[in-house]
Fold these 2 entries.
Entry 1:
Amino acid sequence: MVEALTIVLGVGVVRGWRSTLIGAGSAFVLLAVLVAALGPALSHIPIDALRLVVGALLLAFGLQWLRKAILRSSGFVALHDEDVAFRSEREQAAAAGTDMRAGLDWYSFTVAFKGVLLEGLEVVFIVISFGTAQDALGPAAAGAAAAFVVVVAAGVLAQGPLSRVPENTIKFAVGLLLTSFGCFWGAEGAGVDWPGDEVSLLGVIAFFVVLSFALVRLLGRRRVALNARGAEA
Amino acid sequence: MRYIRSFGLFWWDFIVGDDWRVALGVGVALALTALLTHDGVNAWWLLPIAVALLLADSVRRASRS
C-alpha cells in the first residue's frame, strides 16, 4: 500500500490529479470486485481442500516476503527507500510525453492504475486467503480497508511519500504471519491434527520468529566478515 | 501470444517469486505430510521443519550469489 501511494503521489504531483486519481480509483474498484466475487465463490470449496491450497499459497507467498526481509535486515539486499522511489517516479512522469485518450492523461491513468492494481493484488490475496480459511471475509476486508484509510490519511498529512514508515519491519512481521498461518493451515489441510489445536499456532509463530532472527544474525555476521575481508584486500 | 506469456510470467513471479526451489519444496513437503497422515502418522512436525530448511537454504544461497 505504501508503494502504491508513492507511485500515485509521484505521478499526481507532476502531471495533475484528475487522471491519476481516476486510474487509482478504477484499480481500487477492480480489486473490490475481485474480493466480492472470489471470496463467496471460494467458500463453497470443502474447508480441508481450501486450507491445503490457501496454506500452500500463503507459504509460497509468505516465504518470499520473509526471505526478502531477512536479506534486507542482514544487509545483503538494500532497504527499500520511498524517497528514492518517489524521486524516480517524478522524473519518469516529467519525462513522459502527453497522450490524451478518452479525455484522460493516459500516462497518469495507466501508471496509477497499474501501481494500485499490482500492489493491491497482494492485499486481495491476503484478504481472500485469511477470510475464506477462517470464514471471516467481512472482517478481513474491513481490516484491509482500515489499513488503506490509514495509509492514505498518513500520505495526505505527510504531503509526500511515507519514507519514515519502517517498511522492512512491517514486511518482516507480515512475512512471519503469512508463513506461520500458511504452515498451520497447509498442514491441517493435509490431514494433520496439531497438538493443542489452535494454541499450537502460537508455537509455530514463535518457531519462525526465532528461526528468522537467528538467520538475520548469522547472515549479519557473514556480511561483516565479507566486508572485513574486502577492506583487507 | 505476448500477452499470454506476460500474464503467465506475472503469476509465476507473484506466487513463486525469486526462488522456485522454495515453492517446489513447499509443494513436496505438503504432499509428504498428506501421504504420512493418510498412513496414520500425525506428521505435524514435518512442514515447520521443511519450511525452516527451505528458508535457511534459500537465504544462504542468496547471500552467496
Entry 2:
Amino acid sequence: MREARGPNPFGVPALPERPDCCAVRDPLVQVDGLEVHYGSHVALRDVTMPIHRGCITAIVGPSGCGKSTFLNCLNRLTDLLPGCVVRGRVTLDGQEILNGHVDVVALRRRIGMIFQKPNPFPLSVRKNLTFPLRHHGIRDRRELESIVEAVLQDVGLWDESRIDSTCRR
Amino acid sequence: MASRPSDRRSAARTRAHVAESLVSLAVWVSVILVAAVFVWIVGSVVVHGAANLSWSYLVESPADAGRAGGIGPVLVSTLLILAVCLAVSVPLALGTAILLPEFTRGRGWFGGLVRRSLDVLAGVPSIVFGLFGNAFFSLWLGMGFSILSGGLTLACMVLPILIRTTEEGFRSVPDDYRRAAAALSLSHATTLWHILLPAAAPGLIVGLILGVGRAVAETAALIFTSGYVDRMPASLLDSGRALSLHIFDLSMNVPGGEARAYSAATVLIVLLLVINLLASGMTDRWLHRRIVEA
C-alpha cells in the first residue's frame, strides 16, 4: 500500500515512516474449519484464517454474510444465542477456546467486543463507564474520575454530560 | 336506485361513527362496572367495620369469642405467618427463576417439566395445600398446629406465582444487556446483581404483591396448619390465628360476630394496601440508589 501511494494530490501529510508492524507474521488467533449453525440454518461454513498479532484485520462482506457471527465466535458470545451450534477449532495463543472447559469470563477479558449498535446499560453515563472498570479491579475514585473525564472528552460528550447532571440536580 | 358516490361515502362514515360510539360505550360500561364492584365491596366493608376501629381494637386481645376486645394477637400471628412465608419463598423463587432459563437452554424437557408443574401448582385449590401442609409439616415433620407450619404451607402456595412472575421479569430484560455484559467480561454474579436484578425488579414486585395478596387472604390452608388459637403467640411453634381466619370464624361460627368481622376485614384491606405501598416504595428507592448513584 505504502509504496503505491505516489504523489499526494490532497495535501494530506505523508504517514511517518515506521517499520511495518505486520512484517513479522505471528498468528495470535488461529481459526480452523469453523462452522456455525442457527438451528437448521448454516451461518458459516469452513472458515479457516489466521489473525496476526499487532495487525488490524478487516472482515468485509455484504449484510447478513456472517461477519458478526464470526466475531461472536471469537469470544464465545455465541453461547448466549439459543440454538446456535459452533464447530471447528479456534485457538488463542495456541489454546483452544471452543471447548466447554474454557473460562469464558477470562477469555472475554482478552477478547472484547464492541457492537454495531450502541447498547448502554440503563444506568447513568458515569456508572456505565465506572461499573465495568470497578469490576475489573480499578477502585480508586480519583483514577475512575480521570478515566471517565478522559473518555468523555475523547468522544466530545464531556461538556454535555456535565450540563445534564447539573440540570438534574 | 343508484346513489351518488358522495352519499355512499357519508353513509359509510356515519356507520363507522356509530360503531365507534358503541365500542367506546361498551368499554366505558365495563370499566364502570368493574370499578363499581370494587367500590361496593370495599365501601360496604369499611362502612360496616369503621365503627369499631380504634387503637385499642388493634392491640387488645379478643374477648367473648371475638365479639368484644380487639385483634392484637391475630395481627401479630398474621404478620408472623407472612414473614415465615416470604422468608422461605422469596429466596427460593429468585433462585429458581434465575436457573430455570439456563436449564431450558440445554435440556429443554427438564425446564419444561418444572414450568408445567408450577402452572399446575398455581391452580391447585388452597384447601389441597392445607391438607398437604397438615400431613407434611404438622404431622410428618411434627410441627403441629403452628405459625411455622402455616407459613411454610403458604410458602408452597405462593411459590408458583412468585417464580413465574419473577421469571417473566427476567425474561423482559433485553438480551442486549446480557450480551453487553458478556462482552465486557462481567461475571455472572455481577451481571445478575447490577444489571438483571434492577431491570427485572418491576416484575419481581408484581409477583411479590400478588404473592403477599394470596398469602394474606388465605383461609382454607391455614385452618389445618396454623390453627384457631387467638392467644398471643410466644414462638413460631405456637398456634396462631390469621386475620382471614378470624373473619371466617366471626362470620360463620360466632352468632353476633358480624360487626367485628367487618372491622377485621377493614384492617385486612388496609394491611394489604400498606404492604403494597411499602413494596413499591422500597423498590423505587432501591432502584433509584442503584441506578443514579455511582
